[in-house]
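Researcher: We're reviewing a set of sequences before deciding which ones to prioritize for further study. For each one, I'd like a predicted 3D structure that I can look through quickly. This is Threonine synthase. If possible, include the structure in token form so it fits the rest of the review sheet.
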Amino acid sequence: MMQDVHQLRCTGCARVIALDALKENLRCPECGDLYEVEYPAWSVQSAADSATRPVKRNLPNPSALRWLWKERRTSTELKDQSGVWRFRDLLPILADESNIISLREGNTPLYELPRCAQATGVERLYAKHQGMNPTGSFKDAGMTAALSVAHERGFEWVACASTGNTSAAMAAYAARAGMRSLVLIPEGKIAWGKLSQALDYGALTCQLRTDFDGCVRVLSEVVRRAPVYLLNSVNPYRIEGQKTPALEIAEQLDWQVPDHLIVPGGNLANSSALGKAFLEMKHLGLTDRVPRVSIVQAEGANPLYRSMQANGGRELTAVEAHTRASAIRIGNPASWRKAVKVVEATGGWVEQATEAEIALAKAEIGAEGIGCEPASAVTLVGLKKLLAAGRIDPSESVVLLLTGHTLKDSDYTIQYHRGDLLREEELAPLRPEIEITRRNTVELDADPDQVLRALEKAGRQ
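Model: Here's the predicted structure for Threonine synthase, in token form for your review sheet.
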């Protein structure tokens, strides 16, 4: 029955497979590329195929959908209170909705950024804060979808390789479902706040003496040899859940999509998912256009940026990733081809950010009263660079996607404000700007006069 509702198509060779033919590594056996979920009755891919593969069209009524999704916000049902499953009409991936595993994820805020807007000259600047999800990152939106599929299909164990956020989300949702979870993380290369979550939620957590990409290689062999369901972003059902922040953004802007959406670039599935959603919304008549989707990587983990500069994204060479923004410390991103397609389809760009630029941008976002993890801050760096290059006009509307909560990596924030984060050569180009934003603790005696003098001094700054 579900084959009639959705199917899996290879993003490389376009081969369509039956749902039960999906291999353990979730890759196409013909070309090795990733699959994506499509809906034969109305999907963008099916529309492009209609000349050679006629399909009976059954497009939903966009006005009715907008009304239905708004009404569900007042429902007391768990699936309606989820910001993912509230939009389940656009992700019919389960045969039985009773298999939904939810922690009331989604429905995250869209904040205005008045200080950053004034500093950059952009008139309408927003932050979509996915760090306000139950486990503190955007991964929850994809995890509720993919883990619900695993639950429906009877798996006992789920697994992921992770730089932190994926492991936290997977462990939480597996615990909620009464399932077991296996986490492989690179030793010494994960923020402790994220590792603590995986431990607290009961995951079997293995620190491997390798980097993230090495963890992925080990996990590929594990899922081949054991009945374990892979929940990394190569999983096409993760992408379906991660579409929903795009729907929320459109809804929060009264179905007027922004001119630009800027997304951090790690394993590159998030940009793929959001681009897919905006293209689907336009195809279905929910919106009348799509935003430009641009991706920003850390300079020390920038294989997509290098690829776009060298050959327009036709080929990608893996790099040894080095960045303190641990969530995007990935040198061989699995979804790079999908990301290139989204950038090209929407007219976006790919940029990079230095360590100092990331640290400063994180502090600038924090000064708005909105904390985010370091990886999220690359979006503000990207905005500055796209403005300088004339690729974004100040009169246009821009949404920065913040992927994780500030408490995901509190050590980074403390080191920044103490002056211990950056090496001298990293700090030098932005020293004046960074010094202005630092707010280290002031050590005083337990004396009100000293506190008052500190208060007076701060008032003069």
